[in-house]
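Board notes (copied after class):
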Amino acid sequence: MAYQNSRLAGRILNITRAENLSGTLGALKKRGALEVTLVGAEPAQKLYLTPDVVGTGVDGDFFNVPFLLNADGTPWFEANSFLVDQIFNKHVLNRPTDDAHRRATRLLDYKIFTEESGIDWLDFRGRRLTARPTYRYFKHLIEERGLSPQVVNQYTSDVYQLYQFVSGNWHDIPMERVDSVKTIKIYFQTHTGARSIERLKRSQTQSVPPTPKEQSGFVRDDGEVLRPLKNSEYAELKSIISSSQWSPIERLIVNFPIMTGARKQTVLTLRIKHIDRLVKAGPSNGKSFLLHAGPGTQIDTKNHKRQTLRVPAQLVQELHTYAHSPQAKERRRKFQQRYEKEYPGLEKIADEDVYLFLSDQGNCYFMAKDDPRYPEIKSPPRGQVVDTLKRKLFKVASDDFPRDFYYHWLRATFASLLWKSLLPKIKEGSLTETDAISIIQSRLHHKSRETTHNYLKLFKNMDGKLITQELFEDYLLQDSMFAGALKSDKGSCI
């Protein structure tokens, strides 16, 4: 059972579906407007609601909207309006309301604090800082609650943003009394030279310890700290997942990032049609297939970037074999059955658009943003299966296998294998290190070349141009981890 804060019980509700919440109310009837009655007006008045036209196949309804109540059970109008505004200003394909619920919880915590302390949350007339609601709350979070600096900053940030919204719409609140804010300039060095950015600093924040430099053997990739598996660790991983205790689907989920560098959202949003189309189109150079991911492809990527993955032919064949295996077909049948039962009002999903990787109950492991259910789901699946696989791995792994390992390390392991496959060309002079960096940057889809430089530094410490994909694939597959893996559907199922 999920943890629930008893202090908030009965004060935060969830509106499963708020119809036309982004529509516009007006006294004049426009084309397509709906006639509505203004509740509470005497005498009764009619208004017209013009639905929001999105143009992306998503209507103006909001799903799983948090709704806050005052102590007397009346709606906390200002906070609810703020939360709706926060949701509305997100892209329509990025509106699951987990973030809004977290904000709602923090705002309600503030409201309850003011009530229990006998404070009017809108009263900032106090001359002394300690007489003002936000400053008293800031002190409370630190001294009485003992929250970490990061958490304190999250709470006070949400409260400050609420007051900004409220002061701009309803109440005349002097924001300089809510918090003292100043603009600071931050200087930093990049591989292209010195740069600076401006940030607003509020007084109601605590200093957060600087992000520690990566320890030896690690690299920072788009905000994530990871490292490639060492040769012995990689060999142990291959040995473990090749055992009969691991099912084909489990092996493929692990192998895909090792052989392509893909992140989990890309791996777990593959559809049947992607594999079938790769097989139909054939390889681009005899051994690898080009798989396009990102916007318009139904395959999710980080930050919605367009990507082109090179998928080794052997992996494509194994994916195709699994996709048309009895186990995979049964899981797709369960998926369609559940979908039609639980979401009868949504458009049907074509068989070719069903996810390649599904649980034995027919559930997806990561819900793509173009999934018709996505706007309605309060907490869409976000790849928790990789944690399940990690726990399974640790049950049999030796003491030498790193206990801080997680799935994203497989992306770094791919980069390491690719670098090793390029070394012979570099040593013979047919490929420069600059060319190698370009290749790795392209394959990892790094926006910043500096990120790829950091990988190269790591690889050097650990230990012509790439004419064909075969060089990498021959290196990767010389000790095949896949032999016989898909000849049957034996082994455990996720």
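Comment from the instructor: The longest strand covers residues 181-190. The radius of gyration is 27 Å.
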